[in-house]
Amino acid sequence: MACCVVISTLAGAPHELHLPSGSTVHDLKQVVASCDWGVPQECQRFVGVNAFEPLGETSTVAEGHYNLVVSLDGLYRSLHDPDTAVRLKALQGVSRLRMKGNDDLVGELIERFQDSDCSVREEAVKAVSHVAEKGDQQVLSAICSILLKERQASIRKAAVKAIASIAEKGDRQSAIALIAMLGDVDHDIREAVVGAIASIGKKGDHQSSAALIPFMSHRNRRVRQAALTTFSHVF
Question: What GO molecular function terms would the record report (predicted)?
Fold first, then answer.
């Protein structure tokens, strides 16, 4: 027999869910995490309409109306968990949550850029593009530093894509940082750079054009081709 519950948040229309009779709050969290809201389980707190304290994980869900409060406390703890799998899951949750403009969350993600595990670093770079505000110079500066220091090609590529997502049109510093990557040994990264500059480059940007000139005579033919293609976006 199904149990009908209505979930409300501070923002957005109520959501009606049908759960098997006898389901617990833990079961409810799993369902909510998989629906359109995509709120990670560790961020969910359920409170009855006339209650003040969140329901426990093992509490049985009865038919009725519940308020969903999104809390980042559990997410922050998971981002510092010694288990790599837990940190990865938390970062994937951040991407689904898409909570823009939370400075504390952005700071936590930037801290993960220095994680000892390369898969965590890559996921952190991907996640930050979902939560950083457009044009956030603190984030862009942190990502640009990855382009210079990171050995893992997949992370450098993720950083290029993140810059394209966050930088505003005409952001010269980001464009010049990307241009420096045209000499990357990885062909996929060079292609990603061309696409990123096409996204943020501005016609008539002579400083960016000047930064391209050395790459036009590069010994690698593909680098020269990438430089010429990029030149067409900024000159």
Answer: oxidoreductase activity
